[in-house]
UniProtKB/TrEMBL annotation:
Keyword Membrane belongs to the record: yes
Pfam families: SDF
Protein name: Glutamate:protein symporter
Transmembrane region(s): 40-65, 77-99, 152-170, 197-219, 225-247, 313-339, 351-374
Length: 428
């Protein structure tokens, strides 16, 4: 396997995982054997994310050292995120209205899953998810607790202040900066070691998923799954493609550069799995470390294009399945509610479902319909994770160019290296 690149190894693991899961569908023994392997890989990923984010942010902010420049970057980033995610919501709503995937679906005959945990999470966040509450949540009361929970927004806030503090104290801050740079380099080395385990983790995760739910689960809800896939692919190629063209970047070139990360994101359905490598790769692509280290972690909370597309389609699917026809005014309200509920809760387990439950509740649409799509959610989650990753990579390029700090020569050189490596791999 060593002679193959990471992307090929993960693809082989993905295919084998699907095959084994399908052959041993419902096997408790297989699930008990593979679950720990998949969990260990995800734990390894979660283990390295926070140290890398903290170190990268402190190094980049201390390097900027200018609070005005940082404020300008932050304002532009949030504005860009809000525009793109709103387009994603509207796009999902348009597709849901045109193709009506929930029409004619009889939920009585479909297998349903327990949604109580998502209802509880929704109730817990409903009263604390206003704009004021989101802003308050950004400021941590205990940054160690935020790090333990991998709550990125409070971590980003603390690291920005700490990085500015390191820059402000001048010579005294240099040893701190030096240590942080050492931590960052060491964590990237750890990341490379963890990625060697990725094919085994992917095999286990996919094997367990297919064994639990079975390929047959897809058939009754095939229309929804296919629609979500086509919509997201179209969104990446056309909508993000237009944004990339405006930024003078080819979207297909970006996808080729991110090939390994996208396959890993698809296989694990985890954005966290590629965060360290994504930050490193965007820096190689020509984005300054200070921008990549700020935009990508922030985007993991505020710029989830794939998730927002899915949430808007799923809400309409459930309403259509329940026979509820939403008026134009109600759909406008649905868009406004999604714009709010889709922000700031990315750290909650099953965040997309929590958003959907919260949104449906506020619109007086029966939330029980969500139990029908839980069985196929993993299949859709895999692609929406990919879209989230592409969206945040593109956002980093856009912000770098907007700030006039994108290194065109470095980008061209790196793209040439990627193309050369691809040609050598084909020849081998």
């Amino acid at each position: 396997m060593k002679k193959y690149g990471l992307a090929i190894q993960i693809l082989i693991a993905l295919v084998l995982g699907v095959a084994v899961g399908a052959i041993f569908h419902g096997s408790e023994l297989l699930i008990s054997i593979l679950t720990p392997i998949g969990d260990i890989f995800l734990h390894l990923i979660k283990m390295i994310v926070v140290p890398i984010v903290v170190a990268a942010l402190i190094v980049s902010i201390a390097g900027v050292g200018d609070i005005k420049k940082l404020g300008r970057l932050g304002g532009k980033t949030i504005l860009y995120f809000e525009i793109i995610t709103t387009i994603a919501i509207l796009f999902g709503m348009l597709v849901g209205n045109v193709f009506q995937p929930g029409l004619g679906v009889n939920q009585e005959g479909l297998e349903k899953s327990d949604i109580s945990q998502y209802q509880q999470s929704s109730e817990a966040t409903k009263d604390s998810h206003g704009i004021g509450d989101i802003i308050t949540h950004i400021v941590p009361t205990n940054v160690i607790s935020s790090m333990a929970n991998a709550d990125l927004l409070p971590i980003i806030f603390f690291c920005v202040l700490f990085g500015l503090g390191v820059a402000a104290i001048g010579e005294k801050g240099k040893p701190v900066l030096s240590v942080t740079e050492g931590v960052l380099d060491a964590m990237f080395w750890v990341t490379n070691q963890v990625m060697k385990f990725a094919p085994f983790g992917v095999f286990a995760i996919i094997g367990v998923t297919i064994s639990k739910f079975g390929v047959g689960t897809l058939i009754p809800l095939a229309k929804l799954v296919i629609l979500v896939y086509i919509t997201m692919i179209f969104f990446v190629i056309v909508v993000l493609g237009i944004v990339a063209k405006i930024a003078k970047v080819n979207i297909f070139t970006l996808l080729k550069v991110l090939k390994d990360e996208l396959i890993l994101a698809y296989s694990t359905a985890s954005s966290e799995a590629v965060l360290p490598r994504l930050m490193d790769k965007m820096e190689k692509f020509g984005c300054p470390k200070s921008i990549a280290s700020f935009v990508i972690p922030t985007g993991y909370t505020f710029n989830l294009d794939g998730s927002t597309i899915y949430q808007s389609i799923a809400c309409l699917f459930i309403a259509q399945m329940a026979g509820i026809e939403l008026s134009i005014a109600q759909q406008i309200m649905l868009v406004l509610v999604l714009m709010l509920t889709s922000k700031g809760i990315a750290g909650i387990p099953g965040a997309s479902f929590v958003v959907i439950v919260s949104t449906l509740s506020s619109m007086n649409i029966p939330v029980e319909g969500i139990a029908v799509i839980l069985g196929v959610d993993r299949i859709m989650d895999m692609l929406r994770t990919v879209v989230n990753v592409v969206g945040n990579a593109l956002a980093t390029i856009v912000m770098s160019k907007w700030e006039g700090e994108f290194d065109e020569e470095k980008s061209k050189k790196y793209i040439a290296e990627v193309k050369k490596s691809a040609e050598e791999a084909k020849a081998a």
